[in-house]
Amino acid sequence: MMRTLLSFTALAFALGTTAHAQAPAPAAAYPAKPIRLIVPFPPGGGTDILSRLVATKLTESAKWTVVADNRAGAGGTIGIGEAVKAAPTGYDLVMGQKDNLVIGPWLYKNLPWDPTKDLTAVAHVAYTPVVIATSANSKFKTLADVVAAAKAAPGTITYGSPGNGTSIHLAGDLFEKAAGIKLSHIPYKGSNPALMDALSGNVDLLMSSVPSAMAQIKSGKLRPLAVTSAKRSSSMPEVPTVSESGFKDFDVSTWYGVFAPAGTPATVVNVVNAEINKLLATPEMKAAIHAQGAEPEAMSAAQFNTLLKTDYAKWKGIVEASGAKIE
C-alpha cells in the first residue's frame, strides 16, 4: 500500500513537472530571446524609419534585442500576412500603419486576413500628415499655384505617391475633389522612387509621409507646399495646412503602431505596450520622432484597438468612393 502511494505521488509529481515545463512562460520572463519586428515596406520609407527607431531605442532602454526585418511587397500586405501566420508568442511583431491595415483590405481582392480579427493591437507609436511638396526648382511656390495651373490645364499636373491605394494616394484623390481639379497620379513602388522623381522634376508634385521626405526638405532640395493634417506639423511649423490654404476641414493623416498575431497573451501585449509608452514619454524619443516629421502619441492597447476598428470601417467608404482597386 505504501509502495503504491509512493508510486502515485511520484507519478503525479512527474506529470506536474512536465505540465509546468510545457506551460507558456509568464510575462515576467518575456522576452527570453530576440524579438523580430517585421517592417512591411522597403528600407527608407516612413514605416521603415520609425520601425528602426523603435527597435534601436527599445534595445537601448529595455535591454531587449529587437531586430527590424523588412518584408515588403503588395502595399505592405505581404509583411502583414507573415505576421498573421506567426506564432502568437510575442516574438514576431509587426509595424503596421493605416495603409496596409485599414485601406489595403478594401483594395485587394480576397486577402486571407482581417486586421480586426487576425491581429492584436499592441502599441500606437506616432502619426504623421501627408506633405504635398515639389522640387526646389519648381515653378510652384504655393498650393494656390498648383490649383491655378491644374484648373488652367486639367490632368497635366502630375504627382507621385508610394503606390496605388495608399493613404497618401487617397489623400491626393481627396485633395483633387476638395479643390475641384484634376491631377494625374503616378504610383511608385515605395516612397523613395517617388521622391527621386520629384527631386529630378520627372513628376510635378510629391505626395509623401513627412518622415520619408523630411531629409530632402531639411536640405532645401524639396519645397513643402502644405500638410494634410488639421493642424501644422511641429516639425515644419512654417508650412501651412491644406485647410489654411483654402480647403476648410481637410484632414488626412497616417498612424503607425506595433501589432502582434491574434491570440498573443494579454500579459505579453501589456509588457510591450508599457515599454513602448515609457519610451515615447522620454525627451530623447520625442525629439527623434519629431526630427522625422512625425508626432509621437502613446495609447493603451485597448485604445489603439478601438482606433483600428474605427478607421477600418471609415476608410471602406473612402476607398469605395475613390474607385481605387488593386487586382
Key words describing this protein structure:
2 domains; single chain; D-Maltodextrin-Binding Protein, domain 2; ten-stranded mixed beta sheet; 327 residues; globular
Description:
By secondary structure, this protein is an alpha/beta fold. The chain folds into 2 domains: 34-127 and 253-322, Bordetella uptake gene, domain 1 (D-Maltodextrin-Binding Protein, domain 2, 3-Layer(aba) Sandwich); 129-227, 3-Layer(aba) Sandwich (D-Maltodextrin-Binding Protein, domain 2), CATH 3.40.190. It is built from 12 helices and 10 strands. The chain has helices at residues 2-22, 46-61, 77-85, 98-107, 115-118, 143-152, 167-179, 191-200, 210-219, 266-280, 283-291, 301-322, and strands spanning 35-39, 66-70, 92-97, 119-135, 158-161, 184-187, 205-209, 222-227, 253-261, 295-296. Strands 1, 2, 3, 4, 5, 6, 7, 8, 9 and 10 form a 10-stranded mixed β-sheet that branches. Helix 2 links the parallel strand 1 (35-39) and strand 2 (66-70). Helix 4 (98-107) packs across helix 12. Residues 1-26 have low confidence and may be disordered.
User: Architecture of the largest domain, CATH level 2?
Assistant: 3-Layer(aba) Sandwich
Structural class: alpha/beta
How much helical structure, as a percent, in the residues? 40-55%
Query: Globular, elongated, flat, extended or rod-shaped: what is the shape?
Result: globular
Number of DSSP E strands: 10
CATH homology-level superfamily of the largest domain: Bordetella uptake gene, domain 1
Radius of gyration: 23 Å
User: How large is the share of residues in beta strands?
Assistant: 15-25%
